[in-house]
């Protein structure tokens, strides 16, 4: 099956700066894919290359097997979205703007205007000039403009940036709904909670390079095997844990004991503690959050991020 | 969404609608309306009139002379400005608004967008020219009638033939207007800045006018763009002198074609990184 997005070796340089450095991406149909990175990591530049807005210095990008730079507008069939903030003509109403982009889409796009306005809850303000729209309304209008294309793939660049908490909640709910309807979504963001909430696969990018690409669950699972333990006698419990087979990295703090081990070793440890007359107050498996992983990957040295990713890309 | 072919005519129609929704367009058209009105008001206000220019002596004898005098004066800076006002803005404004990325991610190719924009800019420029001539003709006719014109060769031209020649003169005037619009589109595409494109087009036009009065540059003067704005006078001679019209056609093409080609290639290959 043809991937929704397949980018290989994308490079974009601006003078001395390499904004995007040999980026490979594979987004499968049906994915809700997070493209996560700090500001300035090259996310928007990558998206622009995917949409054919800028030419890569090296590499290529295909959307459903079509290269926008080779095939032009035809390569964008079934693809919609926006990079940075969606932009419209301020001197025209929202509806007129949608009529315009629908005309550029052709087919039955114009017939979807009412439905799209309804989906983003802008029906009542459709005749207002875009000049008077808030940032959040423009973001929603951007989604409406994308929906006119009846897309199979939606590329959204930081769709909640600049929105108030209610606007962020509504936007995420909208993306959830669209994903449930079967759309493939590529969501670029620097907000971990957003990606964790919406996405099933992620690429983490820093300084133009992808340092992880794969399933979000698998990424988080790589940090499984750590536990927090609190007992009726932490000092003695820690000594027992240090001696226990298959248990490592035992540390003691005011919060209790932390250690690493597989499930069988942990089960044996609990039996040993019971035999020693030590009661368990809490035994909690601990996985790193996406945020912790993200900072570990993106705040290392360039060498770490580039040649020795913490989790192989 | 299956592959959909969108016609360039559709894109052009929307470019015209976008122009119709912008104040800038009405400033240019308003000036094309206002200048003949001011000229006629000044003629009505006192006995003086334009002297030493083609048809300047006949402005109170036939309304047909009014638009011809207007065309003569309009060549200095008025038509280059009116044309540049929209043609210099038509691509750059999309950069300024960040809307280029909006339209370039739909189902139309870049060449269609560019072609539609050039055609829309020309529609506006020729529309402003037609409005300017028609207002001058209409109001001139109301105040001074449509008596036969006296040609630049001194022969009388009937009203019907005068109207025909006025139409021809307007078309001849459209040739350098096309060249100015093309230069403005180029500057709009390359600079990505509306004000810079409009001002640069006007400056270029004024510089060429200055070059046109430097006697040491006599050899290049027939090939300067402002000179082509007066080619229409060949039609008002008896017999018609086609030489300046033909020269205006190829000299204008010499400016317009490379400018449009450059703009086209730049537009096709450029990165859309802003907005």
TrEMBL record, chain A:
Q: Which InterPro entries match?
A: AAA+_ATPase, ABC_transporter-like_ATP-bd, ABC_transporter-like_CS, P-loop_NTPase
Among the Pfam families in the record, one is: ABC_tran
Q: Does the keyword Transport apply?
A: yes
Carries keyword Transport? yes
Segments forming domain ABC transporter: 5-232
Output the SUPFAM superfamilies linked to this UniProt entry.
Answer: P-loop containing nucleoside triphosphate hydrolases
State the source organism's domain of life.
Answer: Bacteria
Sample GO molecular function, one term: ATP binding
Segment forming the signal sequence: none
What keywords appear on the UniProt entry? ATP-binding, Nucleotide-binding, Transport
Q: Write down the Gene3D superfamilies for this protein, in alphabetical order.
A: P-loop containing nucleotide triphosphate hydrolases
Return the similarity comment.
Belongs to the ABC transporter superfamily.
* UniProt cross-references to PANTHER family, sorted A to Z: ABC TRANSPORTER, ATP-BINDING PROTEIN
Which named protein is this?
ABC transporter ATP-binding protein
UniProtKB/TrEMBL annotation, chain B:
Entry keyword annotation includes Translocase: no
Membrane-spanning residues? 26-45, 65-92, 113-144, 164-190, 202-225, 245-268
Keywords linked to the UniProt accession: Membrane, Transmembrane, Transmembrane helix
Pfam families attached here? ABC2_membrane_4
Answer yes or no on keyword Membrane: yes
Query: What name does this protein carry?
Result: ABC transporter permease
Species of origin reads Solirubrobacter deserti
